[in-house]
Amino acid sequence: MEKTISLYEMAADLIELVEVEEINDDVKAELIETIKLQIETKAENIIAVIRNYEASINAIKEEEKRLAEYRKIKENQLNRLKEYTVNCMEMLEHKKLDTNLGRISLRKKPTTLNIIDEDLVPSQYKEIIQTVKIDKSQIKKDLKDKKIEGVELVESGNSLIIK
């Protein structure tokens, strides 16, 4: 199998070729044009692969969504069946049933607390929780006019746009 040249290697060859002085200008121009065409072909292939990955990712996300909905349906069916069984056992006043597959039994649930009015609950039972949110967009705007301690602007490179 033939090894393909990477886009990086093509760009390096192009830069190297431009710097070579021993080759006459006509041959150099022809070689440069050939390498540029190879780069263009490679870029087209990269776009095709990226679009293929994006399509695969979207298909996977859709399948995840479908499976999550299916799981939720099954969980609801399970909960309804359990509630039905509890209701039947309570109506028949059975605490447990033994079968060949296993035992079904009822257990008393622990009591739960229901808050009727939060304002009437004494303060000794309340906990104050604060969250700090930093306004990054405002900091970016203010950094143009002044220095702000504890922050810095970081160049994060380029992003790839495919249209």
Q: Can you describe what's shown?
A:
There is one protein chain. The mean pLDDT is 87. The longest helix is centred in the middle third of the chain and has 68 residues. The two termini are 32 Å apart. It is built from 3 helices and 2 strands; from the N terminus they run H-H-E-E-H.
Order of helices and strands: HHEEH
Low-confidence stretches: none
- What is the count of β-strands? 2
Number of H- or I-type helical stretches: 3
Tell me the strand order in the biggest sheet: 1-2
Give the overall silhouette.
elongated
How much strand? under 5%
Helix content: 40-55%
Rounded to an integer in angstroms, the radius of gyration calculated over CA atoms is 34 Å
Largest sheet properties:
2 strands, antiparallel
On the 0-100 scale, what is the average pLDDT? 87
| SS content category | mainly alpha
N- to C-terminal distance: 32 Å
